[in-house]
Design brief:
Blueprint (H helix, E strand, L loop, with lengths): L2 H14 L15 H11 L11 H9 L13 H13 L5 H9 L7 H22 L6 H29 L8
Helix pairs in contact: 1-6, 4-6
Amino acid sequence: MEEKDQLESLRRLLAEWRPVDYDSLPDLDLYKDQLLEYMQRQQMPHGGDDALTGAMVNNYIKSGLLPRPAGKRYQRQHLAILTALCQLKQVLPMSDIGTLLAQQPDAGQPEVFYPRYLDQLDQALGRAADQLPATADREQLARSALAFAVQSYADLLVARQLLALLNGQSEPEK
């Protein structure tokens, strides 16, 4: 596929792909292997090798990030929380994600938190799609990649400082 076609494919993916909304998550309880398979569809395809594993799910439960399943069966609330966890772990350590999720005003209410999370994801992906270069010129691609990377760095700095404030640190880290 030519670079121009790849760029347009990325633009469409950013503009159109979204995890399913809360009411569209399966209302049938899932076993862990079914959960892992379903979660692959909840994540944007990007060619990375960071698929959710059973060990990761166990660790999220042990650390309190994910509620225990009811009789080894996972429900909508688990899928909603795991969707956010899998995406947020791309940019934050799990300890920060734990703080972030615990401090949400709707913590413990995945049916309220998840739609709000999806709305924020939708806005962010839409902005990214709008900021993609118009052409596949290699120089423009390089400049745009740098701009996205620098913006990610700035966003991460702000997120870390806000998390520090949530953790009770009154002074921003230097």
